[in-house]
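Consortium newsletter contribution from the modelling node. Members have asked for a concrete example of what our holo predictions look like. Here is one, prepared for the zinc ion complex that several groups have been discussing at recent meetings.
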Amino acid sequence: MAYDIDKDRLLDTLRACVEVESPVGYYPEIHEWLRAELAEMGYEMTVDNNATAYVRVCGKSSEKVVCLGAHLDTIGLVVRGINDDGTLRVRQLGGINYHSIEGETCLVHCRDGRAVAGQVICDHHSTHVFDDARSRERTEDTMAVSLVADVASAGDARALGVTEGAIVGIDPHFERFDNGYVISRHIDDKAAVAVLLDVLRWLAQTGERPAFDTLFAFPIYEEIGRGGSWVPDEVAEYVAVDITLIGPDYAGSNEHSVGVICSDAKGPYDWDLTNTLIACARDACTPGRWNTQVCFHYSTDANAAALHGNDLAAGAFGMACMNSHGRERCHVDALVETERLARAYVMGCGR
Ligand SMILES: [Zn+2]
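And here is the predicted structure:
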């Protein structure tokens, strides 16, 4: 199998995807973008009632249906109230680290279709004004969104279209470096979306057929734990492509590597399927650039799918990502290794 992976194209796709707003549950823009990307390759996108997008590719065998998923959603906020001064009280959508989003710009998606620019601030926001500006704990009750507009009251904010239930996306601030590094928010999981789109592009261009009928799934509720809560009955295996980790418990993992997740916060993945993924990595990835991991602080849509009673085997792998749920950092090498593993899995390696 030839592995003609175009690094520039991968990073261009990542950037384009990262720059489309898709905080948890807000899918109109990302669905439109994804539908157009897929149409250009000749694929038709379908969407289920849970707002998961799918592409189906016929395999050499219809003996079973396998599914590879990458979530479209990013961590974000939802407006829960408006203060008297017009700043917005918020609630996290996904595992927000308020320290990492302080000062960041954002976009408030109103229910009437308008969008208003904002900035995430602490209520004691300026070191020149508040004695405890440095030490005050950053929590959901001390952090707010300040609209980037002449707003001095709740009425001013409402006049712009902001209401309780508006959803807030945090700006990605994508930066690409000449040596292959990328720093951006939402590499989780837009990097995996870019990889799966490149796998689909490769299948379309080469005419290769997957080993089995294959569904590519793109859920929008992963960051709150239910992106994989429903999976079509026909799916026998659900493999999530999601970030893997870098740190003390992740020996051998760095921004150049792909990890196979053997177990996570919700317990182990399917034994045989995980061993298949390990065999794929051994066969297709660069020696020294793949590892196995136990990601006990988080979970994926694949384990969510199994936990919610779907009759399937779950597996997961993905590119290593530094500084997760902050301004995340990866290297294009990790995307390349992830795509190698994904292609190997799709083609039935290790069976
Ligand atoms: Zn993720």
